[in-house]
Amino acid sequence: MNQPNLTLKNLLYAGLGLLLLIVLIFSGKLVENVDNSEIVIIQSAFTGAVSVYTTPGPVAQNFGTATHYKKSNQFWFSKKNDGGANVDESIKIRFNDGGHAQMAGSVRWYMPSDNKGILKLHTDFGSQPAIEQQLIRQVVTKAEYMTGPLMRSKESSAEKRNDLLSYIEDQSINGIYRTMQEDVKIHDDLMNTDKTITVVRIEQDAKGPIRQEVSAIKTYHVQLQGLSINAIDYDDEVERQIKV
Fold first, then answer.
1. pTM
2. Exposed, middle or buried by CB within 10 Å (0-12, 13-18, 19+), for 207?
């Protein structure tokens, strides 16, 4: 039986075939496309160096790891099937009269415009879903938690409804207010009696509200815009009080 003739030409063909196979297998790791609405971060497979790409077009990936971020995205904290996920992601708020409600809505957020800020976000969170759940959601949740004590349940549904949205948005963007407590007497419409409650007031100076801390949004150079509330579901007791 004749043995295959291993000539230089055959070896060259075999090498080219192997090279073509490798290119086909790893073709998704050679070039990455940057969409106009995205920021792409590529970490080199050889040196570990991280590069940020914000200009649309193809860039060399060179077998590195590519992470995509939307330059701007809408974050939802909604009820099930209400513009967000298929689960209830509304945020609980507690008012100074003990009433509770679940708040649903959304806010648009923007990635930093500078590479240093982008890399800081990428290093600390690593993905867009992590930024939204560990940064955006936590900031909005804290702002809602600190806004609730500034008003009664019924006030949040009527005369202070605009303040409710304004306080949440302002504290999310600029930081939590420094507050002080004061005991006041109010009339409870539900029980038809007077009672004493602790009211929380915002401390002010000549420049406006005093902050007890800077918002993490500012720390990471992220921008929030257009916070909206599309539903406030009060607990049964509060709903009865509002109807009265």
1. 0.81
2. exposed
Contact 214, 76 (CB under 8 A): no
How long a stretch of residues is the chain? Answer: 244
What is the token pair recorded at 150? 């500034």
Contacts of 212 (CB under 8 A, 6+ apart): 175, 176, 177, 178, 179
Asked if residue 117 lies in contact with residue 123, where contact means CB atoms within 8 angstroms, the answer is no
C-alpha dihedral (46, 51, 57, 58), degrees to nearest 10: 0
Q: How would you write the pLDDT of the chain (244 residues) with one tens digit per residue?
A: 455 555 777 777 677 777 766 555 555 567 889 999 999 999 988 888 999 999 999 998 888 889 999 999 999 998 866 555 678 899 999 998 888 999 999 999 999 999 999 999 999 999 999 999 999 999 999 999 999 999 988 888 888 989 999 999 999 999 999 999 888 787 766 567 787 777 789 999 998 999 999 999 999 999 999 999 988 998 887 777 767 6
